[in-house]
Design a protein that fits this description.
Distance between the termini: 81 Å
Helix content: 25-40%
Structural class: mainly alpha
Strand order of the largest sheet: 1-2
Length: about 350
Amino acid sequence: MKLNRGTTCLCFLTASVILLCACHKPEFKATPYELAVPWYFPTKLNIPSDNPMTVEGVALGKKLFYDGHLCGYLGEDSMQMMSCSTCHSPNHGFDIGVDNPRFPGGKPVGLSGRPTHHVPLPLINLVFNNNGYLWNGAASDIESIVLATFVDPTEMNSSYDRVVAAVKSNDDYPPMFAAAFGTPEVNVDRIAKAIAQYVRTLVCSNSKFDKYLCGQVQLTPQELRGYVLFTTEEGADCFHCHGGDGSPLFTTNLFYNNALENVFNDPADRYAVTGNEVDHGAYRAPTLRNIALTPPYMRDGRFQTLDEVLEFYNTGQINSPYVNPLMHHVSDGGVLLTPSQIEDLKAFLQTLTEE
């Protein structure tokens, strides 16, 4: 059949359109996650540009967070399982808790049998932290912490291949990965990104103290006296390190030698990261939100109760060349509050609990 020029052009155009349609795939786009940030909280969020928060990613991360097979173990022996929630229980402010059934006294041990160097920190309000993570600030993002947890012998003691194989073995996951990332591919980077997205949703902002700030409730006279002690140098002098001077996070997310002891050679203190001499024995000031729920306390979990912590700051501080200058009362051994003042301060700290 002889085709004229018009017919030839029409056939070419039609073929081109068909080819373009066949090659063009709709752009994948997950549902953006709207993080609820209270009006008085910081607005600078630590969300990497290559891992935006999505509804689908958060849902996947939540399922992974509580999955006991995440460590790469495929059997049913609960003592061989380990998830993120094994050491970060929601019942303890996403911290370990002294009554953790797996780790008595709140001292965690990895699947290798080796104890962690430091006890865990609570996984709350991490999205507002832009000063590095862990007790010494060595990690810049949550994703890298997740990746390290998989292979650390003091934690999951696994490998990336085993972790991926365990996740792939669950038929629930491929569709969830497709919804979150566009394809059902399961890889360790996607696993870490999804878990990090979920952790960033753990915002603590509905304690009694928050309701007080919003005019919804009143603090008791004892709680108010404790708040005054918390925020004054002449009182308990807590606010310099724990952000009570207007910061709702109740931490500066900075690092201090708090006169706990004369630390010099800890391979996991802030000095190990910065090499700065003033950082010997310095560690992150953890948030005081949910402090009543998050024993044991201090980096090594040496204190089992909040009363022990308060007594240390009251009479047990130990001076050394590296104590932070903000520890104004170290020459006296502590802030030297009366027993009734200690009770007032404790009453205030308990207003920071969000059930």
